């Protein structure tokens, strides 16, 4: 079993390595990575492991950024000190989590979950493991967002739109709350389905959030939303016809 540890505290990473090897002596820790930047550089040049142990909050970002940007198709066990409310969200996106400070019992339990899943799918196919996790996530119809020092789920039905600003994607709910998400608009467009439309480079809008539309002499379409929002999304001339087909 090839394992990679992603943990920004080097002493903690060493302790985790020793604990894993005590519980699973035949495991191979092929790398210990300590930042988003280091991990992205590593995965650009090296093969993916069988299993990842990931700290959630790193010094230069989160492990979610690594998983998304590197398109890692590997089961994950999160290592975290977050509270139980946040852990409910983490659990939906991983095989298991271990609380800090961890011990042999918690690490052993997490590895046992991985082995159970491996046995169900023998011979092991990590893409199938990922599909199981993704299907479980889709059935929840919710998305993880960051809010202050927490990670929390937001139901798809509560999302009015996504917008890109300063190279960062934000989610906006119908009650006008905004959260950062660790996905691109291209990824979200595929994920959210036919209820959402990519009206331009900046906006992905929920049909349920549209009050009505206005047209101009240039044939562009301005979307009037059902809630107060600073910028009104504008549909380009090139997308006007397909947008109106989608809307109706």
Summary?
With 248 residues, the chain is α/β, with parallel strands linked by helices. The protein has 2 domains: 2-140, 3-Layer(aba) Sandwich (Rossmann fold); 143-247, OB fold (Dihydrolipoamide Acetyltransferase, E2P), CATH 2.40.50.1020. It has helices at 10-23, 36-45, 63-69, 84-91, 104-120, 126-140, 185-192, 237-247; strands at residues 2-6, 28-33, 51-55, 57-58, 61-62, 76-80, 96-99, 142-147, 150-155, 159-165, 168-173, 178-180, 196-198, 203-206, 210-215, 221-225, 234-235.
Classify the fold: give the CATH topology of the largest domain. Rossmann fold
What distance separates the N and C termini?
A: 52 Å
- Give the amount of beta strand, in percent: 25-35%
Q: What is the number of domains?
A: 2
Tell me the CATH architecture of the largest domain: 3-Layer(aba) Sandwich
The CATH H-level superfamily of the largest domain is Response regulator
Strands, count? 17
- Tell me the name of the CATH class of the largest domain: Alpha Beta
- What is the rounded Rg? 21 Å
Across the major sheet, the strand order is: 2-1-3-6-7
List keywords for this structure.
OB fold (Dihydrolipoamide Acetyltransferase, E2P); 17 strands; Rossmann fold; single chain; alpha/beta; five-stranded parallel β-sheet; 2 domains; 248 residues
């Amino acid at each position: 079993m090839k394992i990679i540890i992603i943990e920004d505290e080097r002493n903690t990473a060493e302790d985790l390595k020793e604990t894993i090897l005590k519980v699973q002596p035949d495991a191979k820790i092929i790398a210990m990575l300590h930042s988003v930047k280091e991990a992205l550089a590593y995965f650009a040049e090296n093969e993916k492991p069988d299993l990842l142990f990931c700290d959630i909050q790193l010094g230069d970002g989160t492990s979610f950024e690594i998983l998304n940007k590197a398109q890692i198709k590997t089961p994950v066990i999160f290592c975290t000190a977050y509270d139980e409310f946040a852990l409910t969200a983490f659990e939906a996106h991983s095989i298991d989590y271990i609380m800090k400070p961890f011990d042999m019992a918690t690490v052993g339990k997490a590895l046992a979950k991985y082995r159970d899943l491996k046995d169900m799918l023998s011979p092991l196919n990590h893409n199938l493991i990922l599909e199981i996790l993704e299907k479980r996530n889709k059935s929840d119809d919710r998305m993880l967002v960051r809010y202050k020092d927490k990670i929390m789920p937001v139901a798809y039905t509560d999302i009015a739109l996504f917008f890109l600003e300063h190279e960062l994607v934000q989610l906006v709910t119908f009650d006008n709350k905004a959260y950062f998400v660790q996905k691109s608009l291209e990824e979200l467009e595929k994920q959210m389905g036919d209820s959402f439309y990519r009206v331009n480079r900046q906006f992905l809008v929920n049909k349920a959030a549209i009050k009505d539309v206005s047209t101009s002499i240039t044939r562009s379409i301005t979307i009037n939303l059902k809630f107060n929002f600073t910028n009104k999304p504008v549909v380009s001339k090139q997308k006007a016809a397909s947008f109106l087909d989608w809307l109706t």
